[in-house]
Amino acid sequence: xxxxxxxxxxxxxxxxxxxxxxxxxxxxxxxxxxxxxxxxxxxxxxxxxxxxxxxxxxxxxxxxxxxxxxxxxxxxxxxxxxxxxxxxxxxxxxxxxxxxxxxxxxxxxxxxxxxxxxxxxxxxxxxxxxxxxxxxxxxxxxxxxxxxxxxxxxxxxxxxxxxxxxxxxxxxxxxxxxxxxxxxxxxxxxxxxxxxxxxxxxxxxxxxxxxxxxxxxxxxxxxxxxxxxxxxxxxxxxxxxxxxxxxxxxxxxxxxxxxxxxxxxxxxxxxxxxxxxxxxxxxxxxxxxxxxx
Length: 293
What we know:
By secondary structure, this protein is of the alpha/beta class. It has helices at residues 4-57, 68-71, 94-111, 123-133, 151-166, 218-292, and strands spanning 78-84, 115-121, 137-141, 172-182, 185-194. Strands 3-2-1-4-5 form a five-stranded mixed beta sheet, sandwiched between helices.
């Protein structure tokens, strides 16, 4: 049975930990508001970009020469998976849920005889994936020194993906991230970047459709928009990840603070019982000694 001194040390240690988790919860909640606003502001732009690409892609008829970023290389033998996770832990199952989704895709592709290459954005995902897929990892891109995610950070990653594609390093590219829904819900998501997933154009029967004439022609516009769309979608994924990370950390630190409080109460109760038992034992010894005299 632990001594009273050991119990006091345990209680003091848990109280110190509780202060840290409470402070981390408050910091994460403050960062969450900014990250959530940035993620929600980026969604309409990314969705509108997809709509414009869908309208432009609809102009290509059967037999037309479609850009490879839109139509693909005609093969799907080599897959590049861009796994975006956090640089730090203490955020619940945020990192592991993204890695789990990526592992499921990797296992499915390898079972089909495909070649898999991995580009890790964030150290936590890299640490988990390299245990099993170290040979497939091309590079680790760290964002630890970045205080606030900007488009320039996503553009660097997007240009690197394009350079690999132009060099013939892969046929299909998919990015993995966590889509922010709320503080208690973050949805692991896989989004195909190359060839671009174009949403279906709304049916003409659903409403009046505008007719567009493009200058320059559709091919020239797509040649500029498709590379930019990759950076836009990467930027959206990074912003969604940032909001999801802070939301997951807020919930995890709140649970840790509550658990620390429960532990303090249990340890305090055990300390009081041990102290009461010790006092009772001393009183019995004093009374027994007095009666013996």
